[in-house]
Amino acid sequence: xxxxxxxxxxxxxxxxxxxxxxxxxxxxxxxxxxxxxxxxxxxxxxxxxxxxxxxxxxxxxxxxxxxxxxxxxxxxxxxxxxxxxxxxxxxxxxxxxxxxxxxxxxxxxxxxxxxxxxxxxxxxxxxxxxxxxxxxxxxxxxxxxxxxxxxxxxxxxxxxxxxxxxxxxxxxxxxxxxxxxxxxxxxxxxxxxxxxxxxxxxxxxxxxxxxxxxxxxxxxxxxxxxxxxxxxxxxxxxxxxxxxxxxxxxxxxxxxxxxxxxxxxxxxxxxxxxxxxxxxxxxxxxxxxxxxxxxxxxxxxxxxxxxxxxxxxxxxxxxxxxxxxxxxxxxxxxxxxxxxxxxxxxxxxxxxxxxxxxxxxxxxxxxxxxxxxxxxxxxxxxxxxxxxxxxxxxxxxxxxxxxx
Length: 404
Ligand SMILES: [Zn+2]
Ligand SMILES: [Zn+2]
What we know:
Blueprint: H1 9-13, H2 20-42, E1 56-63, E2 70-77, E3 84-93, H3 96-102, E4 119-126, E5 138-141, E6 144-146, H4 152-155, E7 168-169, E8 190-194, E9 199-200, H5 207-210, H6 216-226, E10 234-238, H7 242-253, E11 257-262, H8 268-274, E12 278-281, E13 295-300, H9 308-312, E14 315-323, H10 336-341, E15 345-348, H11 354-367, E16 373-376, H12 381-389, E17 396-400
Parallel strand pairs: 10-11, 10-13, 11-12, 13-14, 14-15, 16-17
Antiparallel strand pairs: 1-2, 3-4, 3-8, 3-17, 4-5, 5-9, 6-7
The chain binds zinc ion (2 copies).
The site of one zinc ion (ZN) has 10 residues, from α4.
């Protein structure tokens, strides 16, 4: 994802910038405009009364290099814009993506970098053109904070697939207009987000329970809904960690017969309690043999390289298999002989759009579906990351941001 840095916000505000090249072509013109605006900005004045008053102080836990070790850091966020919402963060979930990204396992990163994209909190202030939210509202912010808003995919609520490559991810996303040069995430006391990307959290849902749903929840809900999972369908869930345990609960809530596949035997009783009818402990691919072609659909959350071909054989002919776990460098091994056995439709999926993210939150609130969480303090986060990698998390760590 570190590669996806096509255009800056200066470029967005011109309503242009479909590519980096185009941005560079008009950068000179924008630069001249900024120079003209300079003296007014220096006096704290602005052409627009809605312009922000100044940069916003923040502090959080950042990695300084690809060791991924987090430590306290004070930094600035940009000033509030007219369509921004400033959120005082209360909780932030720990996603395996945070670890991959901050350890440089998805590509080169810029540091210091604050991770975190399962954010819930309370609206602190809003820009002059924001009408949907007001200070005091309970809200969430997931893995995106902005996109072009103009392309067909953005207009259709598929902001994660912005055709102009302007999906702005919540942390580590290059943006020269920001004080730190990249977006900074939710292991921090506050976050700025465009109003369209703010999710409302229903009163009946605790903020700490809602946090993991903003990534783990939507990432599994979206493909399950795409498959129109219904009562009686045989649904496989591979990898029962932060994402997988939510996938089991969601699929079971739709009446599906859930078959879970885990490499961690001590999780078996938990997984049954989440709603799985059958739990298979997989030590070698041979353990998959008895389940060949038995599923209507399968979703895999495994976040490391593994042979996806063996697991694809679990699905009946012409069924679908979705990979949502994001391994190091995005690399998976595929045993093609196995892939062809059932002509399975293999697809990859990344989070979900904003309307669907609101949908999963509302669905979980209505149906009392909650992730199994363990609240930690900010200074416990390094240990929590190691526990996630060692498959010891049960099942999602959530940071109490008041400890920062
Ligand atoms: Zn777009
Ligand atoms: Zn995530």
